Amino acid sequence: MKTNIYKSLVLAATCLFAGCADLEEKPVGLLAPESLFNSEKDVETAIFGAYGWIASERLYGRQFVTSIMLRGDMVDIGDRGTPAERQQVNDFNMDDNNGMVRAYWPYWYQVVSAANAAIAGAESLELDETVSNQLIAEARFVRAFSYYHLVRVFGDIPYIDYFITDPEAVKDISKTSEAEVYQGILADFAFAKENLPDNQPNNVRSRPTKGTAAAYLASVNLTLEDYQKAYEEAKWVIDNKDRFGYELEADYQNLYRAEMADNIKEPIFSVDFLGQQNGSGGANDDIMPPMTGIRGADNLGWSVCVPSMAVYNTWDDRDYRKSVSFEHEALVGGVMVPYTEFQNTQRPHIAKYRRFPGNSNSDGRYSDNNYSAMRYAEVLLIAAEAAAEVNNGPTEEAVSLVNAIRERARNAAGQMNSFPEDVQSGMDKDSFIDLVLEERRIELSFEYKRWYDIKRRKMGDVVFKGANSLEPHENFDAAKDYLMPLPRIELDVNPNLAPQNPGY
């Protein structure tokens, strides 16, 4: 059963950065958790409200995920008639007034605000300690999830881990160092691992569990290059997979069938959209299917986020994951045509979100998709990469973890193939790490992971300027482009957020 996340707006005013300019003219007064929360249900509703902000057009429905998708080397602009703000993100020539950043920055802080309010609300009530800690743990997970995205995109950011009772105070908030933000993220995920349940009601994956928190601890530590801790957390998830109900889905295609989302054990944390439903502020508005779909095809789309031909051509045709990930032909006027005859962008398009969006509009909008923000396959790859770093080379376990991914890839809708072959032992460390990063690129293609891999491994000069670049950008500047700019409007309203990120 799809989780019906309530779209709570009660807490939006507590930390709307983009609205700070109006505070002097229209003060909203003081807020207090005891006036907003009277029961466990009120706290839970606030947490569900945070999920509602994540499942919005500004974040996982389009703006945020499009920006980090375009930033990598797997997705290019298709239709160059699309707004300039998207082309600027893709082409590494954005400025501090970029419309995409202006759209999603305040929404992430609305998520944080709702989480902080829920924590304060739970603490203000006389609840059973176990119940209170579980509610607080879920809110802290959501807060950490938000900051984990923000810090990787912007670096030093305002870090707010308390309920703002006086909106006037927002104007005086300054930035926190990236290192301190990461410490807050790790503390929140650790608390969540300690206090969340093993499973959520109906085993939904759009709410976190102990296993979810551990998977994110593994990911954060991998990003911070604390490979021992990354390995330990990932291994803990793997060793307890039956406890949490995790396993690789047998057929890779099923991961991207909206109608099957609730019956798949691979997702560890999902962003859940509800088919044909939407609310104010872009709530529950999933626009990624048309953004990746084919303009002019009978199965409508807009040809905005389209891989380069090099991404398609260098992907081995024997890999079943390629056929799942791409649409290389489509019905146009009732006739099946190859991508060379597409009306707008003559390149294969992304199929993962447009092919089976479930209950949706004709162009796939307002889909029923559950987007896997973390799935079990990624945990296996985290463990493999971290183990190789810790042991200065691949262990037999690390090799077997990658081979588990490849074994699943050989199952083409029930027909077993011979490709991709198993990884053989005996590789040196650097070669194996390169192989794992390549496996991540393919296995997690178009799932908003590639840019973060490029950033954490500092691969920009290679992937955008190297001889084998899939999407060349000679203007990529490692001194600038690993971070995006803070929105200019935020610095205008609050000079304490200065300095701007380098180069903007």
TrEMBL record:
Give the keywords, sorted.
Cell outer membrane, Membrane, Signal
Principal subcellular localization: membrane
- Provide an example Pfam family for this protein: SusD_RagB
Q: Which domain of life is it from?
A: Bacteria
| Annotated RagB/SusD domain residues | 343-504
Compartment(s) where it occurs, according to its Swiss-Prot or TrEMBL record:
Cell outer membrane
Keyword flag Signal:
yes
- Keyword Cytoplasm (UniProt): no
Q: Where is the SusD-like N-terminal domain?
A: 79-222
> Which PROSITE patterns does the UniProt record give?
PROKAR_LIPOPROTEIN
GO cellular component terms, A-Z: cell outer membrane
Q: By its UniProt entry, which Gene3D superfamilies does this protein fall under?
A: 1.25.40.390
Per the similarity annotation, which family is this? Answer: Belongs to the SusD family.
Protein name in the entry:
RagB/SusD domain-containing protein
Organism whose genome encodes this protein: Cyclobacterium marinum (strain ATCC 25205 / DSM 745 / LMG 13164 / NCIMB 1802) (Flectobacillus marinus)
* Species classification: Bacteria, Pseudomonadati, Bacteroidota, Cytophagia, Cytophagales
